[in-house]
Request: fold
Amino acid sequence: GAVVSQHPSWVICKSGTSVKIECRSLDFQATTMFWYRQFPKQSLMLMATSNEGSKATYEQGVEKDKFLINHASLTLSTLTVTSAHPEDSSFYICSAKEQGWETQYFGPGTRLLVL
Amino acid sequence: DAKTTQPTSMDCAEGRAANLPCNHSTISGNEYVYWYRQIHSQGPQYIIHGLKNNETNEMASLIITEDRKSSTLILPHATLRDTAVYYCIVSTTGNQFYFGTGTSLTVIP
Reply:
């Protein structure tokens, strides 16, 4: 149980295009989802928290207009990187939890390369 | 910001117990201690968590000091597949995780 998937697992795009990453909870209702970013040889950095049906809460320094988060259902959250640039190349990871749970479960990650 | 400090790296012989320490001296009364690990290029994997009492599951044991200012994750019989970066995180349930730098554990044959 508690499986989280992400799609795609990796994506390459041209600078200036937008990329959408999906995060799905496969066997539970994810009332809260979190998005992280991880650069090479660094730790995970929390980008935003989203509750189903509400606007996401972004961490300081994360541009909400650049990283659009939608959490419209209890099993799906999407992160859209708008007008991607090479510095946005990173490993994007989501996690999810159900209301009442004490812990969160992570997806396998999506590797984004912007050329 | 992360509220934990961990050694940067550790080695452990295969088959021996791996003891990974974590300091969280500013932990609040309602914050849990969580342990995750990340194998290269994968998402973090949940290991164990606890509030006050020691905990054990099929993967590991978690020992929390009485003052809750530090904890130790114990992998009883380390295997090569346990080589990973181990993260100790303190947080309230449902709250955000702020990752520190973690401990890179290398299990040596």
The radius of gyration of chain A is 13 Å. The mean pLDDT of chain A is 94.
